[in-house]
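User: Could you walk me through two proteins back to back? I'd like the raw sequence and the structure tokens for each, with a short line separating them so I can tell where one ends and the next begins.

Assistant: Of course. Protein one, sequence then structure:
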Amino acid sequence: QVQLVESGGGLVQAGGSLRLSCAASGSIFSINTMGWYRQAPGKQRDLVATIISGGITNYADSVKGRFTISRDNAKNMVYLQMNSLKPEDTAVYYCHGVVRTTDRSPTYSYWGQGTQVTVSS
């Protein structure tokens, strides 16, 4: 069993910053890709950013230059530094991990419970 727990969401004014954290715990042998997705009310869940174990990152066009994803492989943690926040960034942010539980197991996809980010204008 693997758990992903997000923290760091909240209310911020436009132009402000927030830093999200996600801690993975449980039966973890390795984590390939970790990432952040977001879902605004009435909309689908969309990719924000991903990072693989080697450090290569990928960002949605809407957040490039404003958000930075990073990870601490030793601690099984992923972070999302969000700067220059806009009201359209308001959403529930979900942490995602692609996890191998043993050296011979297939990979499994896990999600956190989500953390609310609200940006006021």
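----
Protein two, same layout:
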Amino acid sequence: QVQLVESGGGLVQAGGSLRLSCQASGRTFSYYETGWFRQAPGKEREFVAAIIRSGGTTYYADSVKGRFTISRDNAKNTMYLQMNSLKPEDTAVYYCAARNSDHANYAYWGQGTQVTVSS
């Protein structure tokens, strides 16, 4: 199985940028489909973005489309989330996740990294 560790969160003003990283260890990273999710206080966890094994296809929630970019470097066992034009409503704990296929549930999760956007 794979272990995931997020980093790169922090406090940023509205309109600013952050880049999150998700470092994988254990089983070969390129085996997994991966994605980012977030959970704001008092809300359910929601999908943010996903990327297929090769990195050739990406998916985004409507709320982040055009502002966030997901990518991965399989040689570095790392996935990224570049977040631009951040809004206060982007404030949440961001989690990276992995699954065995696009038909499977996300079974592997990181511990999360806090992103806070001030107005």
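The radius of gyration is 13 Å.

Let me know if you want the two compared in more detail.
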